[in-house]
């Protein structure tokens, strides 16, 4: 029999997890057995300590508040709105309700029998995982040792479901690799390579790969006369080899090669070096497969003779970024590759500009990337933020030197602008006389900011502290960093001011689960993911790293890793911040690619339920680390 | 109940209907009462010449709409009015599986059981059904009936003397999201939502009493 009503309920539920991962029959069965309930404002669906009902609930319209009574207070723990599930855990665990559910506005609920769900859980592993994850994120201490793994588990489940498997392209490789044993002489090996017309030979021991010799080894180690051709191949082979499984995707293969700075990967049966060799993949195989390859792009950058070529390469890098995001490559690798490309482009722009100058630089200098480029977190094209430091000169030479570097900076920033990195609207660029300074002047500038921490000074610090040397003299920058730490150490209250700044943007959860959105201006009602979610984490990581005198890394992910090592007692919190940061960075990048902008402002209406869930799951660590800063730097008193 | 005394030979389905309604013991306790929200799609508004094309219904018990306890039937009719096709979308030879009027009504009565009927402009839907029953030499329906329009008029005293409201208007007043209007089941579900909201508002001393509810539609249950 046709059942129009059940179909309407089906159409509603299918938009929300976990119903979206059910098959049609399962969901139709649920829909057919729904009971629809109307709850008036301020009335209870169930009360704390009550025995569980036969049903759990999905909010169709309205909002249900979950309250937990602690002594005489009713603490609002969560608000469930359209599509949210509540009241399920007690049913599955045969436990009484730990919270009360009360309508915050008049609501319509779908009550779903737990028996039907139990049947489905038994047959659908993904649903099971989703539910376990949503339970574990509801437990009171999400940073307990065992639960960190599950904290984002619901996100993982959703992600793996949403990612389109057809985007994964398995990389091609040669299935009959040329091999020899380790007792083969170098000469014999070279003869085999020549007769088979290959550029590499694998050394195997009982079918497992143990080493590799490439043309380059023969050129560097044999032709130079370092080693005799009568020696065994084991003398010159690179060992161990990097092995992967045949299921590796093109992008993963590229990353493995870049990471290990190698050009060949061995394919083995199970991906480890301890099983049979079944093939070899060379960088060339991949280049043939995919024109947009990071190492090809890097080579093109090095060969580039004009700025238009750089622009073209930057556009290709954007395509590469897009395909990496689609293939769900880990965000750390993506940001490493993209920032390497961005840095190489900047270096090339500097080299091209230096060639245009009439003379060589009068003294040593360093070109600094600031902000997100300095932190190696710049994935999408954003504004350029940079600065220049030059060696101290005699007073009479100062103005001549400064004009030289200002002119150079102007040329560099112009080129970067052509490439696509637009001018910084706040003029935070080396072409601005304020940010093209001698070492001495920079030290004085930092000294002023640190010892007179006005609001503006602190804001400058958050931008300039994340400097990263892109080109030029490392020693100058090391001196500058040393000076900064010395100053901070002798003026410790500065960190408290920095802490206060880190709390300017509170965790983006307003009324528990409602997103805080912009109230006015061009981006009214949009969510500012940069200042409300990414910046609080970036600021926190910077502050805590500075407090440990750690300046080797500006990258937020690396900073969290380092401080997790330095403060084992807060390890779980820092690692969950790290996870949240990765998710947020990917999210911003995806949004940016989707809407062809910086991805900073997100229209919440356009997000799917699972995307909203994903975002929300990142907010708790933000709140927790802000609480930690608040206590550590005694910030409540400063506010 | 006059039926019994007339000793007229009624078909079994009609005897069952009379027996179920007259012997029901559920009416005293509101939580036990089964309500059936229903709507019909017809070829037009003329009781004599127009016919029922579809009946959609869903049950409500203890303040819950029971989706599993719903009913939907499409009826094959010779009468056809192309003017109303654009409203209900039921074509003369559409894709729906259609049954004869007799089969449709018998099935409906089986489904209805001893429930209390809730509809919007109940008089129209019930009259159409009763005309159909008359063609089977039975009727009219014995079930108790409620009309969302009259419950609303009772609650909203400022509206009491004003016109009757359309289902659309009441859904707007009570903030019910409208979806596929003008399918019998869709409108039955909206009516059911409306009924849940109305009865919640109608509670006296936090309790519901069937007699009070029935008193709202003085014109139906004299």
Automatic annotation (TrEMBL), chain A:
PANTHER family documented for this protein: CBS DOMAIN-CONTAINING PROTEIN, CBS DOMAIN-CONTAINING PROTEIN CBSX3, MITOCHONDRIAL
Taxonomic placement: Bacteria, Pseudomonadati, Bacteroidota, Flavobacteriia, Flavobacteriales
Pfam families noted in UniProt: CBS (PF00571), cNMP_binding (PF00027), DUF294 (PF03445), DUF294_C (PF10335)
SMART domains named among the record's database cross-references: CBS, cNMP
Residue ranges of every copy of the Cyclic nucleotide-binding domain listed in the record: 18-138
InterPro entries assigned: CBS_dom (IPR000644), CBS_dom_sf (IPR046342), cNMP-bd_dom (IPR000595), cNMP-bd_dom_sf (IPR018490), Diverse_CBS-Domain (IPR051257), DUF294_put_nucleoTrafse_sb-bd (IPR018821), GlnD_Uridyltrans_N (IPR005105), RmlC-like_jellyroll (IPR014710)
GO terms of molecular function: [protein-PII] uridylyltransferase activity
PROSITE patterns reported for this sequence: CBS (PS51371), CNMP_BINDING_3 (PS50042)
Keyword entries, A-Z: CBS domain
Residue span(s) of domain CBS: 173-231, 237-296
Organism superkingdom: Bacteria
Listed name of the protein: CBS domain-containing protein
UniProtKB/TrEMBL annotation, chain B:
Domain Exonuclease: 34-204
Keywords: Exonuclease, Hydrolase, Nuclease
GO molecular function, one term: DNA binding
GO biological process: DNA replication
Signal peptide from the UniProt entry: none
Domain of life where this protein originates: Bacteria
One family name in Pfam for this protein: RNase_T
Keyword Nuclease carried by entry: yes
GO cellular component: cytosol
InterPro entries linked to this entry: DnaQ (IPR006054), Ribonucl_H (IPR013520), RNaseH-like_sf (IPR012337), RNaseH_sf (IPR036397)
Record-linked CDD domains: DEDDh
Function (record text): DNA polymerase III is a complex, multichain enzyme responsible for most of the replicative synthesis in bacteria. The epsilon subunit contain the editing function and is a proofreading 3'-5' exonuclease.
Assembly and binders: DNA polymerase III contains a core (composed of alpha, epsilon and theta chains) that associates with a tau subunit. This core dimerizes to form the POLIII' complex. PolIII' associates with the gamma complex (composed of gamma, delta, delta', psi and chi chains) and with the beta chain to form the complete DNA polymerase III complex.
Protein's name in the database: DNA polymerase-3 subunit epsilon
